[in-house]
Amino acid sequence: MLIAITGTPGTGKSEVARILAKMLDAKLISISELVGKKKLAYTYDKKRKTKEIAEKDLKKIISLEAEKGIINILEGHLSHLVEADYTFVLRTNPKELEKRLKKRNWSKSKIRENVLAEFIDEIAMEAGTGKTTFELDTSKMKPRKTATLIKDILNSYSLQKKYRTGRIDWTEKYRNVVLKMV
Ligand SMILES: Nc1ncnc2c1ncn2[C@@H]1O[C@H](COP(=O)(O)OP(=O)(O)OP(=O)(O)O)[C@@H](O)[C@H]1O
Ligand SMILES: [Mg+2]
To answer: What is the pLDDT of residue 48?
Structure first.
């Protein structure tokens, strides 16, 4: 079984996935770790200061890695590109996300790009609206609580209905936060 945890950088994927993997005694697969260990090739986009991974390579390595575990948790902001049994999109409101990203040593433009992507639901949109795709607001929820909620959702059909993608929309409440950045 493959559980994908995706979301804009700063939404808490790595922390949540680490805790969840312990809770479920699952194999943790981190996309950035695969890149770091040179198991996954990338090209570097100098302008955006980001590593670009080919979707085909990602799918290939994940299918190999996932054979090693019974329950596999895949985390990374591209993990929704891989076909998983369950996909969780972590969401954080633009104001809180900006705060979290400012703690990193990132350029203003990189912070803006990511806050904007979150504002327009980019990853949730890419992840789609399937019955096994969910989104969770981590703005006020600590990683442990989010991991527990994921575990509960996996075990409950009514929670699955409640947390399907398409409910979260930052565009009204957080317009001003984003307008200030552009
Ligand atoms: N619910 C939360 N409340 C407050 N801080 C949080 C919360 N979730 C995560 N954080 C903090 O935000 C930062 C980002 O979390 P994390 O590194 O897990 O994000 P990520 O989604 O894996 O980002 P990336 O895509 O860049 O790897 C961390 O410092 C983490 O401790
Ligand atoms: Mg991470």
So the answer is: 86
Q: Nearest to residue 28, comparing CAs of 20, 37, 36?
A: 20
Q: Residue 81 belongs to a domain with what CATH number? A: 3.40.50.300
pLDDT computed for residue 89 by the predictor: 98
d(CA 65, ligand 1 centre) in Å: 24
Q: In the predicted model, is pLDDT for residue 136 greater than 90? A: yes
Please count the CA atoms within 13 angstroms of the CA of 125 that sit on its side-chain side: 7
- Give, as residue ranges, everything with CB less than 5 Å from ion ligand 2: 14
Going from the Cα of 101 to the center of ligand 2, the distance in angstroms, rounded, reads: 12
Kindly report the pTM of this predicted structure: 0.96
Atom nearest to 138 CA in ligand 1? 1
> How many domains does the chain divide into?
1
Domain range enclosing 32: 2-181
